[in-house]
């Protein structure tokens, strides 16, 4: 798989089978070699064939965790998004129950749980139906502003204080388990540097239990947004045409990095299939209130000019009384947006003293109750940065 934007630290490398593999947990033992490959998503055996997920309180899923024995993990990535051999990864697939959040007695919120589903207004849905999501220019010009407004409105509905200074969309990814059903990505600028050339592509759903940022890469990414855009920044052409040296005001960013302002990265996830709800390859999130910091492992990606980081997650530790609570929303449509927090500088893991979520660990999964002729998942996620007023 290919990628050309540096915020895509792991999404582009999950190898997804187009078949419907059947796998028992006995066959899903840990991969313990020091050098290994990316795992496939696997589908658990369906003991209740034909029982649809939309009416089920939970479905079983096999999630690609890493073992608690894992320490240092890394890979090397080229400009096109290709990875060399993984080093230090010990995979530990585990079968879990993924709860149907539509049937939950308690509504999940971005502030507390790390993710939140909202139905978009009719005018927003109408605009989404007119966007060519395979056109980078159309997504940047038409959909980024929509996402920025959606995030701001979502946060205004919470108890977040003080007021928001800015919300900016800055990156996106189109995904499908059947790339041909989406088409090719059209970009006005081909990314080229002294390492090589990259063409944007549709990416597979990411079947790895992960979080997009760490305590190191979150602040670093914020700092990057106050600098001159790099060759692989999707906003580079637009910023240069507007004669802007950066997306964000460096002074405001520095105040955020100094702890004087709260900041957060939030993804807006949406199905872009206008004809079908998502029936398989769902996106699931762990309730952030059930994650312990000791269950996180840092994964480093070595580029030609920098080092990126993600968190991979281990299964719930015995000391974690809550155990991971997985949730998803079956049958998502283009009319809905799922907000997923990727890093919050005032979150419980980030600052250690808050009940607010820092991020939602997440993964795609194969649904054993999905119909055999389920339409391919087609989705887009747009990454936004939010900075609040000084406290």
Quick rundown:
The protein has 391 residues and is of the alpha+beta class.
Please mark out the parts with pLDDT under 50 across 5 or more consecutive residues, or reply none.
1-33
Number of strands: 18
Strand ordering within the main sheet: 2-5-15-12-17
Q: Which geometry do the CA atoms define?
A: globular
Helical residue percent band: 10-25%
- Structural class computed from helices and strand pairing: alpha+beta
What does the radius of gyration come to?
A: 20 Å
Termini Cα gap: 43 Å
**Main sheet: strands, sense, barrel:** 5 strands, mixed
Q: What value does the average pLDDT take? A: 86
Strand content: 25-35%
Number of helices: 7
- Element string (H = helix, E = strand): EEEEEHEHHEEEEHHHEEEEEEHEE
Describe the fold and architecture:
The chain has seven helices and 18 strands. The chain is an alpha+beta fold and 391 residues long. A hairpin with a 4-residue loop joins β8 and β9 (197-198).
Protein traits:
five-stranded antiparallel sheet, alpha+beta, five-stranded mixed sheet, 391 residues, 7 helices, 15% helix
